[in-house]
Structures are given as structure tokens and as C-alpha cells.
Amino acid sequence: MAGEPQADCLFCKIVSGEVPATVVRESETTVAFRDINPKAPTHVLVIPRAHYPDAASLAAAEPAVAADILREAAAVAAGDQVDATGYRIVFNTGAGAGQTVFHAHAHVLGGRGLEWPPG
Ligand code: AMP
Ligand code: ZN
User: Fold this and answer.
1) Phi-psi domain of 23 (left: phi exceeds 0; alpha: psi -120 through 50; beta: other)
2) How far is the CA of 10 from the centre of ligand 1 (A)?
3) Where are the beta strands (DSSP E) in the chain?
4) Ligand 2 centroid to 52 CA: how many Å?
5) Which of 51, 103, 105, 107 is catalytic?
């Protein structure tokens, strides 16, 4: 069923606690944890507890949870005190755009100058 945990999904295992992560925030619908290979001083991933392969499928099935992700991303930025200097929320979608984990996630990046457009 849509949204059900997937046995072979790394981020479902982080949600369940089977794989450890440095969790910075949790809500009823989301978990936020530090990226294991940070690309900026603040690099946090915000994920839905439910499994959807990407942001678009999450938004189509559970738009309120997609909104929760954006709200939690802002709270992460405020918690790391990068909100005043600016931060970026990125949803890589598809292998061609760099998506490697097919459980929807927002990257929250900040704490250094961020170039635009990204590579
Ligand atoms: P993406 O390439 O957009 O799919 O992003 C996946 C992100 O997950 C990458 O930035 C990885 O560094 C990160 N990542 C992979 N494994 C872990 C892990 N066990 N804990 C935290 N972050 C991870
Ligand atoms: Zn998953």
C-alpha cells in the first residue's frame, strides 16, 4: 500500500530506528537528521515517516505531510541559526538529478554561501 515501509529502504530503517542517525527534530509525520556526508555546515535531511519514492508522489498522496516537511525544514534552519543568513531546501528527483535514496527527502543546506544555479 502507498506509504507503507519498504524492507529495502535505508530511510525507512532510519524512521524505525534500525539504522542510527543523528536526529535533530521529530514530529508525528516527519524525522529530520544530519546528512552523513554534509555538503554545508548545516546539511539536514527532512523525511516523511511514510515511504514515498519522491517529493511529487508524497505531495500527490499526502499533501499535508509535504507541507509538514517544509515547516520542519524551516524549524531546522532556525534551530541551526542559519535562517537569517539564508538556506536552501532541495528535493533531488530522479537519478539524473542526483537522487540516490528513493524515499522522499528535503535537503536543508546553510551556513555558507550557496551559489546559484547549483551544479
Ligand atoms: P539524494 O542524493 O538527494 O538521494 O540524497 C541522499 C542523501 O542521503 C545523501 O546526501 C547522502 O549523503 C545521505 N545519506 C546516505 N546514507 C545516509 C545515512 N545513513 N545517514 C544520513 N544520511 C545519509
Ligand atoms: Zn522508505
Assistant:
1) beta
2) 9
3) 23-26, 30-34, 42-48, 87-90, 106-110
4) 7
5) 105
User: Quick one: cell of 36?
Assistant: 552523513
Upstream peptide bond of 5 is cis (omega within 30 degrees of 0): no
**Of 9, 10, 51, whose CA–CA distance to 30 is shortest?**
51
Domains detected in the chain: 10-110 (3.30.428.10)
Tens of pLDDT, residues 28-77: 999 999 999 999 999 999 999 999 999 999 999 999 999 999 999 999 99
Beta carbon of 101 within 6 Å of any ligand 1 atom: yes
Which residue from 23, 45, 21 is spatially nearest to 106, judged by alpha carbons? 45
With the C-alpha atoms ordered 41, 48, 74, 116, is the resulting torsion angle positive or negative?
A: positive
The rounded distance, in Å, linking the Cα atoms of 111 and 81 is 8
> What are the CA-CA distances from residue 49 to residues 17, 82, 84 (Å)?
11, 25, 28
